[in-house]
Write a structure and sequence with these properties.
The protein starts with a helix and ends with a strand. 15% of the residues lie in helices and 51% in strands. With 254 residues, it is mainly beta.
């Protein structure tokens, strides 16, 4: 009797694994890669793409990204650039899943001033033909938002995957005394349509780069979508006491 039970159990064991293997085979057959690009990770190359208007996606909302400098100690010029790279497109069971990364830049170039301890004026965007952010008075902030867009019967849903970024300062007389990052999502959840709002809270990187993965529990959004990252750095002159802030907002809106 024990021998018969053992044979039956062995049959069930083998049959179960056979079903799993068969299911995996079906899953692989139902998945088709339509597009696969090598990700651009060189931040300077991404900057050149953004600066020259090269992007795989044209933004429907050009004002979705906000860059500003508050209480700057001297006159300066602010510019912002954005580029999006399409990374992957996969069709799974009739659903198209596409992965993107949107990179935004804030470029702040200081002008000469007779009194560096007094707040100056921020010139209108585009007031200079070329910015010298890599000069001794230049600062550049950048951030990346990675997300997945799914399409099913002409319905788009969006899920935040990760955020990253950093800062470059070529002003040796200026100190970065604080860095702050905050990312999140708001909108109506996929399927239920219920309004949701999720936030990382304030994060304080201890170096000039950051990289955070969004929690897998955060839902995909189907409408009123806002997702992205805000970054802030506080700057201070080595020779003085005045402080000022650079803020870059990189948001996907739909």
């Amino acid at each position: 009797m024990k021998k018969i039970v053992g044979i039956v159990m062995s049959f069930i064991f083998i049959f179960s694994f056979g079903n799993v293997s068969f299911a995996n085979s079906l899953s692989e057959l139902d998945s088709k890669v339509l597009y696969n690009a090598q990700e651009i990770t060189d931040i300077d190359l991404l900057y050149e793409r953004a600066k020259h208007g090269i992007s795989d996606v044209v933004s429907k909302n050009p004002d979705q990204n906000i860059a500003f400098v508050s209480d700057a100690p001297i006159n300066g010029t602010i510019k912002e650039y954005t580029t999006t790279q399409k990374l992957l497109a996969v069709e799974k069971n009739g659903v198209l899943e596409e992965s993107f990364k949107t990179v935004s830049f804030l470029v702040y170039t200081e002008e000469k001033s007779t009194d560096e301890e007094k707040p100056g004026l921020i010139q209108p965007r585009g007031s200079k033909e070329e910015e010298d952010w890599d000069s001794s008075k230049g600062v550049r902030a950048y951030s990346t938002v990675k997300y997945t867009r799914s399409t099913n019967n002409n319905l788009y849903t969006y899920k935040l995957d990760s955020v990253s970024g950093g800062w470059n300062s070529y002003d040796h007389g200026t100190l970065i005394i604080e860095r702050k990052v905050k990312y999140g999502i708001t909108g109506n959840a996929q399927g239920s349509g219920i309004a949701v709002s999720k936030s990382s809270g304030d994060l304080y990187p201890n170096q000039n780069t950051f990289d955070y993965t969004a929690p897998s529990s955060w839902p995909a959004l189907e409408s009123n979508v806002v997702m992205g990252v805000n970054t802030y750095i506080t700057l201070k002159r080595q020779s003085g006491t005045y402080e000022w802030t650079l803020h870059l907002q990189n948001n996907l809106t739909n």
